[in-house]
Each structure stands twice: as structure tokens, then as C-alpha cells.
């Protein structure tokens, strides 16, 4: 048995039939059912976008901004320090500049000011001569700051997309899809909201911002459906041929060429823009995206790339320290991990929390302790089953500040309440989560046959891109026999094999699955889930499946029969949780003595790895051992007795030898056995066996190595001799447990485990 690492969910495991059906099924799973919906999904276009005037307060905002432009009133754009916030800032700044506004931008410092608008920033903006502020990607939870702004005569227009609390801030206006009843799409990113407002302000569709919209939308992990899908698809095309000087430089340092997809943003552009605000001020990222001078852009891009490398090293160090805290206090972090330490860079704690979630599969709060302020501040990430926003809001009184989404949040906690928060969150998790909830969840799209995995299918699947939240890359389920299993990579931590099903094969690559090398069997079917990709080597393109998880639900049987030095391969394979069992002859391997089967059966405890070192005297005994111990893995490491006959002599063989003995009158065992063996081509042990049967049935008498016929014997069937019965039983056991094929042996064993009847008399086809 090989357990899956993740929790698999699926609607059906019945394979679909044709490539077109696969595409139809995938669209249906995404809620795209009608021809019109499918056409819109596969060919996103501007006509599928919503009129920005449907955003509540849009006309009020336009009037206020145009008034500021007409009167020369300066406007401050207040942004956020992540990639969504930075791109939102640039979209709004360039929109205002095009309108002729006097404007500037303000992005708070994560370390000195924290997230979002703050009262001191509002006062400073007012002192600098501004009387109108437009927030982008932030502000919906800035209640105190808006109160201060109102008190000092500062109009604030909030544009945001984050979760809305019970009441709204008392701002001049709020542009937010979730508070706009007539705006049907609620999941825009911050940059998407800024773009829609830009469109309304400018009076035309501003294609020049689409590359920025794609970056911010993908980086912020919002659902890539509806308007987000349209804007991102158009934005990726724009980004491929962007003339924006800063993005050209950023693509170069990120080694992004030719086509640009969501992974290039998710792993290349997004992390670099985020890194700037994680380690210091995010303004260089804004400057890069607005740069027009190639020299300046290249310098900024190089600086940002270096900052990202520094960020990676900091994350690596903090993650190691956080893991140490968890390992040293496992009970304290049993259900929810809350780790905190002085000196941690709070700008990267979201990344660290994400790593811990992947490692431990439980919600994680990662906080930096600030003893001089008496607080801990940081970020949280969660598993699918634990809604951070809902559960965090249910204990809102334990936080100084709190906000975010279901899977990600930021917070500030009083140090004196940190232990209480940890205890409360663990209690909530205990009451709401099951054991299965702590396994990473994987939603399987479809089951397919290996024969369906083609380059044409991959080409069709690419029409579903860009992939992301709510439109994940299709995850397929397939079964087959693993062949040519190899460990690959410099440190042998990865796995490669061919999956065979009905004479079709597909190559499988499993990064980080090297430990499975000893657990896959080239004769036993395995279930796997994975993503399709194209492998290109020497100008040859082929399909490969990127392994995401695997499982074998049945007991695994590993065949080491007849291997004299089996233990050299089995011991590192099976690990430490093993039991050696013998039926007749004790075995000692590396200072470990095998136990007698009767002892193990009487104990009746479950065994993870059972190693059988010799053959039983009864098939029933063998099956009883397996039933009583229920091993996940069975290792057959025995050898057959070389003296055992594989086939019983025929009745004609017995008749010929008996007639020969009668004709001779007396049979010298040593001399005449050799003569018969040479004449008939028989083995000596066959002749000895027949003579033993004759002796038991008293057909002959033996004395001093000489055999003579018994003239007064009663005729009896050969099968009544004990030696004949024992040999028949031994041949049956060896033919099933030793000489049979692997597939036949496993089939017999499974049949035996399911049956309560004796197997001694069972006739197994082909054995």
C-alpha cells in the first residue's frame, strides 16, 4: 500500500472517450455549458467586459476628479506595496496624467507604517498641499484614517477589492465591485478596479494598461474567470509585445522571452515587483513601471532583481528558524501554527507562512516580535478548509489590526495576547476541522486513458489558459503499470518512469518523488494524478505527465523470490518498521532474528512491512498470517528446496520402475539408481521419491542398501502413501508461492484474503 500525500476529490473516475469530449467536460466543470459561454471562454474579448459606469459612485468620482483637474487641485494616489498595488498605482497615475491632473503617489512603508492608509500619512498628505486622495488596492478597512482625513478636510476616494466589513468607511466615495449591486462581477483585482475606473474617466478602453492589469491580477491570485480572464488574456498578449520601457527591462532580468504566460508572471515578474516592497519602499517598482529612459529602466530592473535575490535568502533563513520552532513545540502547533520571533523581516512572512502551510498542511500565522512596541506583526496563510478571514473576524478583539482574504491575512497582535490567540485558533480548528482537512486538497478534473494523452490534447488544453484561481490547470487521473522506474537528478530526489496501460505508454516525471523508487512495483498497477506537459529533446516533442501525487490502495507484494542476497535490496526498501517471519527455518539478518509465524499470528497486531523468509507447510497457514497481520507491504524473500520435485512422477513412471525392480529381483539403491537415471533421463531425487512411496506402501523391502519386491503385498493406491501426499502438498505450495508468475501469485493471494474457505484444495488456473 502506498498512501497518497494529498486528499483527492473527483466527480467520476470513468475515463472520457474523445479529445473533444475532454474539452467539453473540462468546460462544464468550470460552469461553462452553453455554446455562447464556451465561445466566450475560449475566445475572450473586450465585448465580454462590463460597463464601468455600473460601479457605484463612478459618476461621483469622475466629477470630483475632473473638478480637481480643472482647478489645478493636486491629487495623491495612495497605493499598496505589493505587485497588485504597484500596478494599480501606475494605472491610476498615468490615467490622471493623461487627464491633465497634477498628481503624485504615496505608498506606505511596510515596516514603519504598515498596511493601508494610516492617520499620520493622511496628515502628511494634507500638509504637503493635497486635498484629494485616491486609494488603489487598499482603503476599505481604513476607518480611523478616513475619520482623520474628513476632520482635516481631505477628500478620500477609495478604490479597492478586499473583503468588505460590516460597515464602510465614511469616505467621499467608494469604488468597489462588492458594494456595487449592479456590477455583476465581484472578483476584480485591485488593478482591475483601477483599470475600470480609468476606462470610465478616459472615456475609451485604455489598452495601454492591459500589460499592467495582467501582472497585478495574476500576482494577486484572484479568480481567473469572468472579467479577470478577459483582462488577463488581453494583457498577456500585450505583455508579449510591450513597449513599456520598464517591463522590457524587467522581462530581460527575469529571462522571459517570446510568449509570456501566467507562470512567467507568477514566478518571474510578480515576485520581483513584490520583493521591493517586502524589503523596503515599493516606490522603485513604481518608478520602473513608469520609466521612459532605457538606461534608468535597466538600472532599476537590475536593482530590483538583486533585491529579489536578497529576499530569497532571507526567506530561506526565516523558514528554517520557523520550522525549528514548530518542531520544538509540536503540541503547541498541533492544529494551527502560530510562530513568532524577534528580528524577522515582516515583509517576507507571507512567503514563509506559505512554505509552512505546504510543509505541515495546517493554517500558519508567522509574526515578527517588536518588543519595544509590545506587539507582534505579520502574515497568515491557510489551508482550503480553514477560512482565515471568517475565523479571524470571529476573534477580532484579539487583534490590534486584522484584514485579508479566506486564505491570506495580515495582522498585528498585542504580545500579551499572543498565547491566547494561539490557543483560541487551535480550539477553533479542533472544533471545525477533520483529519482529512489537514491534507492538501486536489480536485481532479477528469480520468483519462493513457491512449488519450496526445500533443493534440495538450494543444486543446492550452485554449483554457490562462490558468489560476477558479480556472486551475487541468489535473488528470490515470492508472497503469510503472515501467523502467529510475531515480534522476543530481541528488537522486526525483523520479522518472513510463506508465503503461493497454500497450500504450506515457513518460511520468515526479519532482521530489525519488523516495518512491522502492515503493513502485513494475508488476503492480498504480493510480496517479498529474498535469500534462510537452517534453522537447533533440527537436522531438512528446507528451509527459508531471506527477502531482500517487497511490496504491491494495496491499503491495514485492517479489524477491529466489534472490540469495535479497536483504541488500529489501532492507533499505522497507525501512525500519519491519517484521521478519519464518515458518520452519529461523533467519538472522543484520542482527535481527526472524520470528516464528505462529508467534506473529498469535500476537495478531497489524504490521506495516512483512518479510517472509521461507515457505510454509500449508497454504492456509500462509494466508492466515497475511490476514492476521494485515501488512501494507509484503516482501517474498524465500527460496525453494532444490530437492523438491516440481512435478510428481506419472503413474507410468511408477509402473516402469516397479516392473524394472521385479525384473531385476533385487535393486541396489546406489548403483541401480544411477543406471535408471542415465537410462530414463530422470533425476536421482525422483527415483528416491518413487522408491520411498513403494517402501511406505510395502511394495518393496529395503535392507542394507538393497531393495527387493514384496510378493505378498496388498495393492493400494499410490496417493495413500504419506510421502506422496507430502510431496503433492509441497509441489502445490511451491507452484503457487514460488514458481508462479507475479500476477498469478497476487491474484491467488487476493482471492485467498477475500475467501473464508480453505485454500488447500483450491484449484488455481495455470498454477
Question: Explain this structure to me?
Answer:
With 767 residues, the chain is of the alpha/beta class. It has five domains: 7-39 and 444-551, OB fold (Dihydrolipoamide Acetyltransferase, E2P); 49-306, inorganic pyrophosphatase (n-terminal core); 329-438, Diaminopimelate Epimerase, Chain A, domain 1, CATH 3.10.310; 556-640 and 738-754, no CATH class; 651-730, Orthogonal Bundle (Arc Repressor Mutant, subunit A), CATH 1.10.10. It has 25 helices and 28 strands. Strands 3-2-4-5-6 form a five-stranded parallel beta sheet, sandwiched between helices. A five-stranded mixed beta sheet has the order 7-8-9-11-10. Helix 19 (597-603) runs parallel beside helix 20. The radius of gyration is 37 Å and the shape is elongated. The protein starts with 6 loop residues before the first strand and ends in a 13-residue tail after the last helix.
